Structure prediction request, 378 residues.
Amino acid sequence: MSSKIWLSPPHLNGHEMEYIQQAFDSNWVAPVGENIDEFEESIKQTIGGKNEVVCLSSGTAALHLALIMAGISKGDEVLCQSFTFAAAANTIIYQRATPIFIDSEPSTWNMCPAHLETAIKDRIARGKNPKAIIFVNLYGMPAKIDEIISIAKKYNLILIEDAAESIGSTYKGKSCGTFGDFAIFSFNGNKIITTSGGGALICPNLSLKQKAIFLATQAKDEAPHYQHSTIGYNYRMSNILAGIGRTQIKVLQERIQNRRANHQFYQNLFHTINEVKVLEEPNINFFSNFWLTTIHINKAYSNFKREALFTKLAEANIESKPLWKPMHLQPVFQEYPYYGKKVCENLFVTGLCLPSGSNLSNKDKERIANVISVYFNI
Ligand SMILES: *Cc1c(COP(=O)(O)O)cnc(C)c1O
Prediction:
């Protein structure tokens, strides 16, 4: 059997050990040190140099801190893209707030601005207290960000950008991770760059960065003894893992080129297959890092099924994955309100993520192309 082709495996560049070694040599094997400072500075420069960066233990920790910094607490409502990974919804629950799930729109698969506004109006009419919005740039594709920002402004809501999958993507030339009041990145093992596990919170200024670090390091007041006047968290990134990130971020642009080349490969492959649509940038305002290339099968073609394609790939030892199961369909979140139609529900039924690693070889691509050509009979 040929070796397994993974969906999005880590891609190390061979230099990661250098900064890890440095951390050991200097004895800074704690959640403080030069690697953290340097990694934060590199991320800051990567996204335009204007926002402040706080490295944390995960993207989920970053989302949780964003909600805490936004003052979200019991009884508040947070409008959240339904079509995404569970982390955002979970962190809303951590704060004992209520998630209000919003459908996607078909061109980016991200939060639908029209349903968002309908939901806000309806919540207010019901006497509820919507306070914040979490939107996502899924699979690297920027959302319809201008429209979402103007709704947030109109109703005076705090805006949180879940850019876990979209570092290096841009919207109207501006980096993802810089929109809204707070944003987050993830450096989990499956993301475009990794620290094995980690994340970052992006803040608009230095005093908010300092506040985030304070909360992420157990909220210790200034005192010779341990003194606490607020609830703290142990969310800071380790200086060892930041050493991995420091090396990884140097090759971000190459990684994006590779992922975009994968996307081009799939576009060419599916070009003549009418049954399949590859998610593409709607226009030049959207630049995706194409973390994952995603497709969906046109429902009109009932001969072809997502499950069948998934199975054919699996039989050839190729990993693929159904698109996100919407949060409002998850057993754990079923009780919460949902505003929308069936855009994300349909994507869940008909869509698939294809192998998109930046280390996908030409041989891997041949194997994938073979399975797909056989299945679609071309
Ligand atoms: C990966 C991911 C997260 C969570 O990041 P972790 O670092 O794994 O905690 C949050 N949101 C989205 C959309 C993600 O893909």
User: Anything to note?
Assistant: The chain has two domains: 16-251, 253-375. Residues 16-251 form a domain with the Aspartate Aminotransferase; domain 2 fold (CATH 3.40.640.10).
